[in-house]
Design brief:
Order of helices and strands of chain B: HHHHHHHHHH
Strand content of chain A: under 5%
Radius of gyration of chain A: 17 Å
Strand content of chain B: under 5%
Number of helices of chain A: 4
Largest interface: A-B, 44 and 52 residues
Shape of chain B: globular
Distance between the termini of chain A: 62 Å
Number of strands of chain B: 0
Largest sheet of chain B: none
Order of helices and strands of chain A: HHHH
Oligomer: heterodimer
Helix content of chain A: 55-70%
Number of strands of chain A: 0
Number of helices of chain B: 10
Radius of gyration of chain B: 19 Å
């Protein structure tokens, strides 16, 4: 079997999440990238996870354009 | 220590204008309006009292965020005296509902389109906040430390006293849960 064996979509999403937090080893990095090239569903999921990071970081830096709406979704206790 | 008053705070107007920002940051981290007000106020006072430690270089918000993070963690330590609930085992893996036995998607993942357009979309932010509000505490706590406070996973492990593997599992589940929630409430609702 090829040492860089095919990984499932579930494994690919887990690897992508880990990739957001730390460097992957060469084997896992190649497995992830090759999977994303040929799997549109995982590619979409990876891009959405990247967008979540972008969104949260923009919140942290006060760049979220709708920050003032926040209180509407976290209402005061009565 | 000197407590800030309207008169004293006017001597540091840059800090004064960050009150709302501090509150919003606290609200994102605590998901509790009243607690966020208290913690934001504590952080603001601590910043005023520690103003000698502000060297004027870098971003004021970065300095304030560090103060706020400590206040939030102190608050959570009191709230969860026996540790943040370890919901890894208790909370079902969101992946269980979307992958089949072979680990393949059961149904197509929705496209989120152009990221810049999403970030400009009011609906995206409203749904993101709603989805964040209902996330399990343990997942949300780790997610916030990673994505809002930008801590490395080793720092998160040390802060929350959890294992690196536990941390990765919580982060992945948090991202998947948010992704699925936004899929359902934002993308598919808009389709």
């Amino acid at each position: 079997m090829n040492p860089l064996h095919w990984i499932s979509c579930r494994e690919a999403t887990e690897l992508h999440s880990r990739h957001l937090d730390e460097s992957l080893g060469t084997k896992h990095w190649i497995q992830l990238k090759s999977h994303l090239v040929i799997c549109p569903r995982c590619s979409r999921t990876a891009r959405s996870m990247d967008l979540l990071r972008l969104a949260m970081r923009s919140v942290a830096h006060g760049d979220d354009p709708h920050g003032t709406r926040l209180e509407e979704n976290f209402p005061e206790r009565s | 220590m000197e407590s800030p008053t309207l008169a004293t705070s006017s001597r540091w107007p840059e800090l004064e204008v960050e009150r709302d920002w501090l509150f919003r940051q606290a609200l994102w981290r605590l998901r509790d309006h009243d607690a966020a007000e208290d913690i934001a106020q504590e952080a603001w006072i601590a910043a005023w009292q520690g103003r000698a430690g502000w060297n004027g270089q870098g971003k004021l918000r970065s300095w304030l965020a560090g103060i706020l993070r400590h206040k939030v963690l102190d608050h959570l330590r009191v709230k969860y005296r026996e540790g943040v609930p370890a919901e890894v085992e208790l909370e079902p893996d969101p992946g269980l509902s979307v992958f089949d036995d072979r680990g393949m998607w059961k149904e197509p993942a929705a496209s989120w389109g152009d990221p810049s357009e999403a970030l400009e979309s009011a609906a995206f932010w409203v749904v993101l906040e709603i989805c964040a509000r209902v996330m399990p505490e343990s997942q949300y706590r780790v997610f916030v430390l990673r994505e809002l406070d930008e801590l490395e996973t080793s720092e998160i492990c040390a802060t929350l006293e959890i294992s690196p593997e536990n941390c990765h599992v919580l982060l992945h589940r948090a991202r998947m849960r948010l992704r699925l929630c936004l899929d359902k409430k934002w993308r598919k609702a808009a389709a």
